[in-house]
Amino acid sequence: MNAGFSQYVTDDKFCAGLENGTSVEQGDSGGGLIIPKNSINNDLRYYIVGIVSTKDLGTNIATFTNINKLRPWLNQTVLSFIEEGYCPPLISNSVELTQCNFNGTEVDCKKPTMPGTKAKLQCKNSFHGEFPYPLYTDTECQKNLTWSPLMDSCLECGRRYKFNNYEPLITYKERKVSEFPWHVGIYKKNEEGIKFACGGTIIHPKVILIAAVCAYLHGPERTSNPKDFFVVAGKYERKWTIKANFEQRFQVSSIMVHRIYATDRTKNEADIAMLVLNDTIKTSSYIMPACIDWSNKQKLLDKPYVAGLIAGWGITEDGVISNVLRSTEVLMINRTRCSLRSLEIVLTPDKWCIISEDGSGVSLGDVGGIVFPKFEEDIGKLTYYLSGILSNSVSKDTNSVTDVLYYENWIKQIFMYILNSVKRTK
User: Fold this and answer.
1) Nearest-angstrom CA–CA distance, 326 and 113
2) Contact 102/117 with Cβ under 8 angstroms?
3) Mean pLDDT of the 322-339 span
4) How buried is residue 284: exposed, middle or buried, by Cβ count under 10 Å (0-12/13-18/19+)?
5) Peptide bond connecting 149 to the previous residue in cis, omega within 30 degrees of 0
C-alpha cells in the first residue's frame, strides 16, 4: 500500500484485490462488489457487500464502502418514504399486482403511494396461496401508512431443487429423492395389508388430485371407503413397509369423485377425483404442490407437440414393476392427432393424449399427474405445471389424459367446499 493511501481507509471501508493483479480501474467507481451465497432452498443468490470507492495507484488494492456499516442509514432512507406520508411499494416475487387506483384513477403501486390508494393482489401462477388458484385480496393504503389487509403467504409450487447431486434431466431413468416433490404414493388397505394403488399429485397441502379409477369400485358401494386409503408425500421406494425419514404419511378423510364418472364409466369421461387428507402436509423444498396454469398462459393444446414429464412406480423397460420412483418424457398431442393413432377409441371432450416415442411407455403404476415445464422469467426459475392425469391406453405407445383445466370450475367448487369445511371444524 502506498504511503498516504491509508487516509482513505476509513471505518466504513474495507480493501480488496487479487494477487494475480486483477483490479478495479478508472470508471469502476460506484460499482457493487457482489458475493454469491446459497439460500435455504439451495438457490445461488448474489448479495452486494461493498461499493467501489478509491484505488491505491500502482497496486491492485482498492477500497470499498462497507454496505453493512451503512445499514442504519439505508433503512432510514427507505423509511423516509413513510415519514413523507406514503405507503411502501407493493413489490413481491410471489404476489401479483392486478389493479391499483387512487380515487378512481389508475396509479403505480410499485412506487410509494398515498393513503386511500386501493389495490388487488393475488398469488402468482407459480405460487400457491390458501387456494391454489387466483383469489383476489383487496387491500388499501391506510392512514397509518401500512397496507391492510395483506395476503396470506404464497407458497412455492412446481420447483425441482438439486438435492443429492441429481441432474434433473428429462430422460427415462431412475429418479432421486425429492426430484418430484409434488408426486405422492396412494396406498389402499385390503385383506393382505396395505398395498400400493397409484400415484397422485399435491395441489394443496391438504388435497391430492388423482385419477378417479384409483378410488372407485364396481358394485353398489361405488366409491371406496376413505379410511382404507393412505397418502405418502416424499415417497421414493414404492413399498409401504419401507419408510424414509423425510416421508409424511396421511390417512384420507374423504374422496371427491366427479359425478359424471360416478354415473357412467363406460366412456372413461371425467376420470378425476380429489383426496382430502386428515392433516396438512408440511411443505418444503422436498415436498410441495405442483402449479396449475389457471390462466392457460402455456396454451399447450395450440401447439403440435409439447414435451412433458410423468413419474411413477410403473413397469420398467425390463417388464418388472419398479421399486423406486422413475420418470419418462412424453409428448402431448391434441385430440385430432390422437384419434388418428387409434380409430377404435372415442375420446371424450375432456381428453388429449400423450405418446412415448422412445419405447418406454407408461403403465398402471404410472397413473398420476403429467407436468410441463415453463421458465418463469419474473422469478428466474423453471416451474412445473400440472396439466393432465393419466387415464387409459389408446394404443401401445399412446395414452389418453384427463385435461385438468377442463375441470377448472369443478376443482374450484370442490376446493371451496373442502376448505370451508376445514374452517368450520376449527
Assistant:
1) 51
2) yes
3) 83
4) middle
5) yes
Q: Cell for 35?
A: 458475493
* pLDDT tens digit sequence for 291-305: 999 888 888 877 777
Kindly provide the b/e burial profile for residues 69-87, where b requires at least 16 CB atoms within 10 angstroms of the residue's own CB. Answer: eeeeeeeeeeeebeeeebb
What's the distance, Cα to Cα, between the start and end of the chain in Å? 68
**pLDDT at residue 165 greater than cutoff 70:** no
- Give the span between the Cα atoms of 78 and 91, in whole angstroms: 14
Average pLDDT over residues 123-140: 85
DSSP secondary structure letter of residue 269: T
Distance CA 258, CA 243 (A): 32
Cell of 69: 456499516
Q: Cell triple for residue 404? A: 385438468
Apex 252 CA angle, 246 and 255, nearest 5:
135
Based on DSSP, count helices (H) and strands (E) in the chain, helices before strands.
4, 24
Ranges of H-type helices in 84-137: none
Contact criterion met (CB below 8 Å) for 141 and 112: no
Q: Which long-range contacts (CB under 8 A, 24 or more apart) does 48-54 make?
A: 50/14, 50/16, 52/24, 52/28, 53/8, 53/13, 53/29, 54/5, 54/8, 54/29
Residue found by looking up cell 370450475 in the block: 409
Write down how long the chain is.
426
With cell 442509514, the residue in question is: 73
Q: For position 221, what pLDDT does the model report?
A: 53
pLDDT per residue as tens digits for the range 175-219: 455 688 999 999 999 888 999 999 999 999 999 999 998 887 654
Q: Which residues contact 355 (CB under 8 A, 6 or more apart)?
A: 330, 331, 333, 341, 397, 398
- The candidate with the shortest Cα–Cα distance to 367, out of 218, 171, 147, 200, is 200
Q: Determine which of 350-364, 370-384, 405-419 has the lowest per-residue pLDDT on average.
A: 350-364
Q: For residue 418, is pLDDT > 60?
A: yes
